[in-house]
Write a structure and sequence with these properties.
34% of the residues lie in helices and 21% in strands. It has 281 residues and is α/β, with parallel strands linked by helices.
């Protein structure tokens, strides 16, 4: 098996600040297929299963690109939420622009010297799954898509939380793992109100995807109900495959720091690695 090299990169994100990521590849000089990984809300590229999944796909000869969204809040060390203001002003539209920036840089040969890929896939988890769906619907050159625990709508906030947001101009988001309290300003709420029924309409975007798409969702997802996966599957084209993982949680049992896999996570990874190998190689 060829050795996978991991090369960091940094480009300007949609907010003008640094967008940090890394490329895993067995070779930069040929136009091998590639997959871009999109993390979810309060997630980051090195959270839990992401490095394991990236390495597994890269081992199959598919270049993987992982990055932290501009609004992830995670700073240069890749682990600490040291950029709370960037987190506070993050939006769905901003996430989508970040993905477009990474796609453009990859196709132009501007990420860690990697040659433009001959085929490109997207992977997204949770909110990142919704972003990946929107990006794939807008870019017909995306060959294939895999989403885990993806949201089917950006309208996810209860009215009492919205009322608090309106009154205070912000809400506080607590990271249960670290105890960090991060601000979330009205930017996100305003973005949802302005674009939630058009360019951020995830179900409408799903209906425009007529390419191979694997939807994976845990039966016992405590954050995004499996009903979201069923709605996405119903809206999508005929090349979509839905896999409900029995007993699977939102992260299929994965934790951060990484403490090993679970049968549910192993199953999701098997499905995903096989899917990308089949549709990109």
């Amino acid at each position: 098996m060829a050795t996978v090299k991991t090369v960091p990169f940094e480009v300007a994100g949609q907010d003008g600040g640094p967008l940090r990521g890394e490329v895993r590849t067995v070779g930069t000089g040929s136009g091998r297929p590639a997959v871009i990984l999109c993390h979810g809300f309060k997630g980051f590229k090195d959270w839990g299963f992401f490095p394991i999944l990236a390495q597994r796909v890269a081992n199959a000869g598919i270049t993987t690109v992982a990055f932290n969204f501009s609004g992830s809040g995670v700073g240069p060390d890749g682990e600490t939420f040291s950029e709370p203001e960037r987190f506070g002003h993050a939006t769905h539209s901003g996430d989508l622009k970040d993905v477009e920036i990474v796609i453009r840089a990859l196709r132009n040969g501007g990420l860690a010297g990697v040659a433009p890929p001959r085929r490109l896939g997207l992977f997204g988890h949770s909110r990142g799954g919704g972003t990946a769906i929107l990006a794939a619907a807008a870019d017909e050159e995306i060959t294939t898509l895999v989403t885990w625990s993806a949201i089917a709508t950006v309208h996810r906030w209860p009215q009492e939380r919205i009322d608090e947001w309106e009154t205070d101009g912000r809400i506080d988001i607590v990271n249960a793992r670290t105890g960090d309290v991060l601000p979330l300003y009205r930017d996100l709420l305003d973005d949802i109100r302005a674009h939630g029924s058009d360019r951020l309409d995830i179900l409408a975007a799903a209906g425009r995807i007529e390419r191979p798409w694997l939807i994976v969702h845990g039966e016992q997802d405590e954050s995004v109900p499996a009903l979201d996966a069923m709605k996405l599957s119903e809206a999508a084209g005929s090349q979509t495959q839905l896999q409900i993982v029995e007993g699977g949680s939102h992260t299929f049992g994965a934790r951060h720091p990484w403490a090993g896999g679970t049968p549910e996570l192993d199953h999701a990874m098997d499905l995903t690695a096989g899917w990308f190998s089949r549709h990109l190689s």
